[in-house]
Design a protein that fits this description.
The protein has 195 residues and is an alpha/beta fold. The protein is 34% helix and 21% strand.
Length: 195
């Protein structure tokens, strides 16, 4: 399974790195490959708290695309709000989904997935600070750590990205591997809403 985590200026570090670590731990016994990508070529991306990351490549054709959040409530040009307003990334997300890519968002990454037009009438969750904004869309807001609606998964705020990744590992590879990774991380998993 080929997983790509989409980075952009102002993304929240843990939204991307938490799932990345889960997937890398799971890859030890499986055929998972995970890479950090951007929507256009760049040497470095600076996250919301100043972490500088060198992406592996540009967005390709993954089986699973993870969209982190970050910076929504600040309403500035860096982060999810800025990307929502620029509307460059959401059409790319929509295109990926139309080609059969499973989408997974963490935190306010759900707002970019919503802007892509693929959450209409579907259950979803986002960070608590953006739930009212998500309620103003055509998405069906569910208050849970992780919402699995088949080809689109969403997770609540920040650390719920770890729950999301562990669930994806369980769903795609098996419970035993997911439990092994959770034990390695010393992480207690949260609630899941599944359609």
């Amino acid at each position: 399974m080929n997983i790509e985590i989409l980075l952009y200026e102002g993304f929240d570090e843990l939204d991307a790195i938490g799932p990345y670590e889960v997937f890398q731990n799971a890859a030890k016994d499986t055929d998972l490959s995970t890479s950090l990508v951007t929507h256009e070529p760049t040497e470095r991306v600076t996250a919301s708290h100043g972490l500088r990351v060198e992406p592996d490549s540009v967005l390709g054709e993954p089986d699973l695309l993870v969209v982190p959040g970050g910076g929504w409530t600040a309403r500035n040009e860096r982060g999810t709000w800025g990307e929502y307003e620029r509307n460059v990334i959401p059409p790319l997300i929509a295109e990926q989904h139309s080609h059969g890519t499973t989408l997974a968002s963490v935190c306010t990454g759900a707002m970019l997935v919503e802007k892509a037009g693929v959450l209409d009438g579907r259950p979803a969750v986002t960070h608590a600070g953006a739930l009212d904004d998500l309620r103003e869309t055509a998405a069906e807001v569910v208050e849970a750590r992780v919402v699995d609606d088949g080809d689109i998964l969403t997770a609540g705020g920040v650390t719920s990205g770890i729950d999301l990744a562990l669930w994806i590992v369980e769903r795609e590879i098996g419970e035993e591997v997911a439990e092994r990774v959770a034990t390695t991380l010393e992480y207690e998993r949260g609630e899941l809403y599944r359609t």
